[in-house]
Amino acid sequence: MRILLDTNVLIRLGGTSAPASNSILARVTSSDELFVTSISRAEIAIKLSIGKLVLPAAESAFWRGLVTELQATEIPFTSSHAELLTSMPLHHRDPFDRMIIAQCLAEDFCIATTDSIFGLYGVRTLM
Question: Which residues span the domain enclosing 89?
Answer without folding.
Answer: 2-126
